[in-house]
Amino acid sequence: MAPRTKTPQSPAPHAADSHDLIRVHGARENNLKDVSIELPKRRLTVFTGVSGSGKSSLVFATIAAESQRLINETYPAFVQGFMPSQARPDVDVLDGLTTAIIVDQQRMGSDPRSTVGTATDANAMLRILFSRLGKPHIGPPGAFAFNVPSVTASGAITVERGNKKTEKATFSRTGGMCPRCEGRGSVSDIDLTQLYDDSKSIAEGAFTIPGWKSDSWWTVRIYAESGFLDPNKPIAKFTKREMQDFLYKEPTKVKVEGSTLTFEGLIPKIQKSFLSKDREAMQPHIREFVDRAVTFATCPECEGTRLTEGARSSKIKKISIADACAMEIRDLAEWVRGLNEPSVAPLLEALQQTLDSFVEIGLGYLALDRPSGTLSGGEAQRVKMIRHLGSSLTDVTYVFDEPTIGLHPHDIQRMNDLLLRLRDKGNTVLVVEHKPEAIAIADHVVDLGPGAGTAGGTVCFEGTLEGLRASDTVTGRHLDDRAVLKDEVRKPTGALEIRGATAHNLQDVDVDIPLGVLTVITGVAGSGKSSLVHGSIPAGENVISVDQSPIKGSRRSNPATYTGLLEPIRKAFAKANGVKPALFSANSEGACPTCNGAGVIFTDLGVMASVSSPCEDCEGKRFQPLVLDYHLGGRDISEVLAMSVAEAEEFFGSSGEAPLPAAHKILDRLADVGLGYLSLGQPLTTLSGGERQRLKLATHMGDKGGTYVLDEPTTGLHLADVEQLLGLLDRLVESGKSVIVIEHHQAVMAHADWIIDLGPGAGHDGGKIVFEGTPADLVAARSTLTGEHLAEYVGE
């Protein structure tokens, strides 16, 4: 008999294969309430929940933050000293973490010298290419860089070697920066008529600059008493010498009433005090003045290319680096594909791969010279994804914050494919998302809630998409929500005429935007929507524009300070107690002296993360004990700031403990946009993207104007919040306002009275009006990409 053979048993699993989960236990960051959860590795997990429910706190502030902190700790202490130090998140156990790569919604820097090319390294590769192949040869890669100025120097240098000896040396560096505009592509010109009234003298108050009153220190004391000017002579009658001193004089020390002060010409003074600041960070009245007083024109020397004549003269196949950067990226990719030069083959291959990634991710319509500050939130996020698409890394955790923002339904499928491709390479993909089309591709879904702020922070559901649909959570109930087309649309009361619009890729567009109704401007990403609305609608006194720019604010800012709500509250406290309003500000006289009104004490530990602990003197209330003795309606200022918007609305209402109409009006607007749960003193740094967007909208609702222009107001909003937004838009229209919305969300399109669809494609394939009419007509015609997706959405 043949010997019996044993059937081989499967070997015991290797210990290394048992780490297939990311385990989070006891997470308490921000509003999380002891969250414990297990996430599968090498799968795509989508986190859902209403805006402010704790999604970002769990994904970004806990999982991704700890992963980055642990990686930073692997570097020597010397290197860590140059890196931002992070504290360990407030969590008991974090297990099974892998390296996290974060692709968030942060807008790219608005530095005028930052472009799509510089942000993605495509420019760096092009510069090397032109320095090797460009004819005539003008120098190294720096000669093609608009951020590198040309430098020449000569003089004596002392060489300390043996016997010291002095040598003559010359140094030169060829840069590509245009000397006239300093690499910005545009030059600014100041309109002097906006700075002063030349029919008046300085003593009569000639200045029309905000804050420059005729009795202020700078204008009268320095300009009037410097000795260079006659303060009683109308500016129009100044001599040539006086005018030169008045406008352009270099900083000069002068004696004024025994004090030594610095006199400086008006133009350099304005440039330092106003133009050197970030426009977005300015107060509204200052920004209005700067927009009025300063005009920007294309630089006449470089024609807007930012480059020197030498850099523009060097060409490859009749194309200069300026021409290459101005091309749409998909056209540039074809041009690079046609270059066959073995000496730079690795460079061409890397450049080709980067440019193809742009096309693949749906950004082929951009040009490399596009300023990065002009990109929308969705475009900026996809530009950040470029460097990860061709990566050979596996077993990495990719963390995405609403990657479908700014995407037309037609583009969402492409984004979904990219996320699945990253997962299929063996990576863990964590996505915070609201769109049903993106939630649909999840292997695992985590729903946080049930509400927002203090009402959220718990896991309501964990499992499959079908399980979520069947669950009784807010997301589960609203997952299949579909807005219906209106039976009747409102009739316009007038029209805003746009004629011959050519901004960016618009192709001589003529269109009438109806007024007195809800108009939605739509089209694929890059079709020209923002160019049409922001570039063609004159921003006058009657137009209130709410764009996508993020709201500025430190941990000292809160909803009360940002909306102007604190002002009437401080005055009411001051009046009720017979003291100064400044006492009721934690940033002014009322601040706790120990923590300077921050509420916490920071202990710097060098290369280690700073430690913050609540201030023992004020117990985190931020105010001096003396201030807390003053009351309004039975509450002190710290108790008022601890209230939620809904509580404060009742407290300051006509039948509340402290009726205050000015505060009640602002609180009504905050409740209108669905922020009733937010506490008045909550630091802005702890708000989610959707909450910030709605806070901004609530602030602008108080502005006086007949036309509202909203740029993607559904950004960061949960399906349940979109319903509330539609109600708000309806109330604005019914109160007599005209509302123009740039939007991709089908629920907003279906709810519109009038739709203007741009396309048919992006970049030079777009820029035309492909449909004007009611949503019902668009669905019936199905003549555009938007029409097809909207018809599918409403089920027709």
Automatic annotation (TrEMBL):
SUPFAM superfamilies: P-loop containing nucleoside triphosphate hydrolases. InterPro entries: ABC_transporter-like_ATP-bd (IPR003439), P-loop_NTPase (IPR027417). Coiled coil: none annotated. Gene3D superfamilies: ABC transporter ATPase domain-like, ABC transporter ATPase like domain, P-loop containing nucleotide triphosphate hydrolases. Keywords: ATP-binding, Cytoplasm, DNA damage, DNA excision, DNA repair, DNA-binding, Excision nuclease, Nucleotide-binding, Repeat. This is UvrABC system protein A. Residues 16-475, 484-785 form the ABC transporter domain. It is found in: Cytoplasm. Belongs to the ABC transporter superfamily. UvrA family. Its main location: cytoplasm. Transmembrane segments: none annotated. PROSITE patterns: ABC_TRANSPORTER_2 (PS50893). The lineage of its organism: Bacteria, Bacillati, Actinomycetota, Actinomycetes, Kitasatosporales.
